[in-house]
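Input for the complex:
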Amino acid sequence: MSGAGLTVRDLRVTFDGFRAVDGVDLDVPPGDLRFLIGPNGAGKTTLVDAVTGLVRATGSVRFAGEELLGRPVHRIARRGIGRTFQTATVFEQLTVLQNLDIAAGAGRGPLTLLRRRRGVPEAVAHALETIGLAGLRDRPAGVLAHGQKQWLEIGMLLVQDVRLLLLDEPVAGMSHDEREATGELLRRVGEDRTVVVIEHDMDFMRSYARSVSVLHAGKVLKQGTVAEVQADARVQEVYLGRAAAPEPVAVPVAEEA
Amino acid sequence: MTTTAPPPAPTPAVATPPPSPSARFRVPGAFLLGAVLLFGVAPLVLSDFRISLLAKYLCYAIVAVGVSLAWGRGGLLVLGQGVFFGLGGYAMAMHLKLADAAAAGETLPDFMLLYGSGDALPWWWRPFANPVFALAATVLLPMAVAALLGYFVFRRRVRGAYFAILSQALAAALSIWLVGQQTTTGGTNGLTDIRGFFGYDLSDPVNQRTVYFVVAGVLLLLMAAARQLFVSRYGELLVAVRDAEERVRFLGYDPAAVKLVAYVVAAGTAGLAGALFVPAVGIISPALIGIVPSIGFVIGAAVGGRASLVGAVLGAVAVAWAQSSLSDAFPAAWTYLQGLLFVVAVGFLPGGLASVVTALRARRTRTAPAPAPTKGETA
Ligand SMILES: Nc1ncnc2c1ncn2[C@@H]1O[C@H](COP(=O)(O)OP(=O)(O)O)[C@@H](O)[C@H]1O
Ligand SMILES: [Mg+2]
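Predicted:
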């Protein structure tokens, strides 16, 4: 059954000799809500970059049985794989509605593109309700609060109709209420999709993860349920022990785009 | 299911007010006003000489329509529009020279007889004797060149300054090549002394006025078409590509294709402008399509507001008018002034004068909180 989900084999990404992802194997079955945790610089973002075609990688990444490595970014996206970024990236000059409409439209033909949008497409209206931004739909996305931008990004993935969502630290910088709302959103979104969430926040992970993979120095250290991962001695050593202490000063993380 | 939705946004939900009647009729009203000015007022109050000048400025305005699309909406700094303007202009001029020669009972255009390279017409001149081929070529040739160039450039992700420099280099190359082909392109002189336009004598002021009306009509039609592109889904997508190209890629679009469309349309527009320039002014030459004129093509749009169609068009006319008024009096100073205008507009007023108008209007109607001004949204 693993053939239908996300299957990563011996994935390697090297930056000028530095092995950011160093032989990762990962199996995310369809419908899973997988949390990907690990200290800063473990290679989590780079792993997502490799899966979505942003950085060159060797090895194999299959989704629904199809090899993704080597394909251009937009073709991978068209296979139903969507992602968000550590810093929310929306089209600031366009309205919330326009952002969602563009996300919904990769399959549109030239004639549709040349016409003006009339009304709100059903999928977009539905997503506006789901992400709770219906009241702000005609606002430029640039004026949204940080959390709202993250929701808008998730909404864009919903209308894009992706089957695999890769979310890079979606609740970073959110208030407690916003985190909770986002967690519920993830749960709902994950009902009929496969979701991979990169996250630092342990409480958040405990509440919402269905399974967890721990990444350390470019390798998968441990994979299992929340309880199994928390009980693992090596994980405690490299990660949980440190997470219990006050957050270390964040290592500057490489630009996403 | 709404019970689990994220908490209501902290900002109070703002229902967009229905567009006021004045806003609804603003666009058709503006077009009507433009038509009345161009077709009614200008021919009444301007002399024959001024009308010919205006026809020339409107040709620059047509280029600006394409610049507004490619640069204003698409973020492509098209600093080589002279290439496409030149291709359109030469295609038209070659046909008119051949028609002039045929009318005079010659087989070769006058300059070829004069510089006497040989007795046969070069093979690549021959198809231009056919009016349909020549007219189609004025638009399709620039579009084909832009498509070929854009395909490689955008796929290789050449952007920003590199794209601008490449465009400039191409404009320089074409004008230098033309200068070197004295016997087949007229060299530095270009193609001049064009007398007839599809059977009409261009020295007749009545026919000059007709040419003006054709130029004005084409400008209005192209503005209507561009406006449709601006408000279409493609227009929104183009702004998205301009502002966050990588993000668009992750939504399953190929930004190279999106940019290519804008670039090719802008090239066709410039080609058409070049084609109309020939009967309007009576000449096309390397000096009209090289590096400096290519920069000139975008300055009007920059000053008026590149993302705003009306701003770009009015800016192009105003800058062209200023150039012909000032460059006669102070030929050296104009070059510097042109550079200064460009730097000031791009550096300090990226929205051009149109953004000032938008800001003033927003201020006047600040009864309800206006959304943040967006450079992509000024129509
Ligand atoms: N484009 C890049 N060039 C060079 N090094 C990079 C690049 N992107 C990431 N890295 C390095 O790769 C390592 C993993 O980074 P990243 O995947 O962002 O970590 P994480 O998301 O787990 O915090 C870090 O040491 C980072 O400095
Ligand atoms: Mg990261």
